Amino acid sequence: MAPPEIDFLRDQLIDRRRRLQTALQATPDNSSLTELLAEVDGALARMQQGRYGLCEICQEPIERDRLLSDPLLRYCLDHLSPSERQALERDLELAAQIQSQLLPPRESPLEGWEVAYNYQPMGLVSGDYCDLMADPQQPDRMFFVLGDVAGKGVASSMLMTHLHAIFRSLVRVHLPLEDMVAMANRIFCESALAGQYATLVCGRATRTGEIELHNAGHWPALVVRRGSVERIDSTNVPLGMFPAGQFVARRIQLHAGESLFLYTDGLVETRNPAGTEFGLPRLMEMLGTLAGAPAEDVLAGCLRTLAEFRQDARRPDDLTLLVLRRAE
Ligand SMILES: [Zn+2]
Description:
The chain has nine helices and ten strands. It is of the alpha+beta class. It folds into two domains: 3-79, DksA, coiled-coil domain (Four Helix Bundle (Hemerythrin (Met), subunit A), Up-down Bundle); 99-326, 4-Layer Sandwich (Phosphatase 2c, domain 1). It has a five-stranded antiparallel beta sheet with strand order 1-10-9-6-7. A five-stranded antiparallel beta sheet has the order 2-3-4-5-8, with helices on one face. Helix 1 (3-26) runs antiparallel to helix 2 and helix 5 runs antiparallel to helix 6. Bound molecules: zinc ion (ZN). Zinc ion binds at residues 55, 57-58, 60, 75-76, 78-79. Residues 55, 57-58, 60, 75-76, 78-79 line the site of zinc ion.
C-alpha cells in the first residue's frame, strides 16, 4: 500500500483503539471488545514492522479495496478460512439482492418513449449503474443514467449504490442538468476514496423528444437515426475525480423511431476467440442495421450479435445496455 494510505489507516486504527478503550472502561468484562483491541494492536504492530497489508499465509498483498474497508484483515481472498469465506459469500448474496432491487422498472416512465435495458453483472455484484425515473412533479420528462464505477467487486458495487441514491434524491430538486451533475460530483467526491471514480452518461428526455445529455468520461453515447449513427463523446472527466468540475450538457432532438443507445465496457471490450475486440466501429455499424427497430429488438439484436462474435471466449466485464427510443 502507498504511504498516504498506510497513514490514513494508521489514524483510523488509533482512533478505533481510543474508542475501544473508552467502551472497555464502561464494560471491562466485554470479551469481544478485548479481542478487537488485541486485533487493532496487532495491526498497529504489523505497520511498525512493515508487514502490514500482507497475507499471513502467502505473504502477497491483501486486496487494497478490502483493506481500506476493513483495516484488520490478515488474509488475502485466496486464504480465507471456511467461515470467513461463508460470511463473504452471504454478504455478496445480500449485496446482489440489494443491487437487483435498485434496477428501474422494465416499462418506460414517460409516455412517448420506449425503453429496454440489459443488466448483467460478471460476478454476483456489479459496479455498473443504470437508472430511469420520472419526476412526479415534472411528469413531462424522465431522467436516465448509465455508468460504470471503476474497479470490481463489493467496493465498486457499494459506490454504485451510493451514486444511485445521490441521483435519486437530486432528481427531485429540479436543478438544471449541469448543476445536478456538478452537485452529484461534489457529493460523490466526498465519499469516494482516491482512485475511486465513475464514468457515466446521464440526461433528461422530454415527451416531445428533446434530450439534454452529459457524458462524463464515459464511452460515446450513440444516437441511432435512419441513415446515420452519431456519437456524443465525453466532454469531461469522470465523477469523483475533482470536486470543482464544470459540466456542460448537450442538447439533441430525437424524432419518431430514433434511439439513444448507452452501454458499458462489457460490450465494446468483449473479444472473440482470436483476441479481436468488438469495438466501437463494429457497434456503430451494427446499430445502423437496426435503425428504426423497436427498443426491445435493438437490445436483442445487439446481444445476439455480441454472442455470435464472442463465441466461447470469456466475458470480460459487467455488461449493461440501455436503449431509449422515441415511439412512433
Ligand atoms: Zn494469501
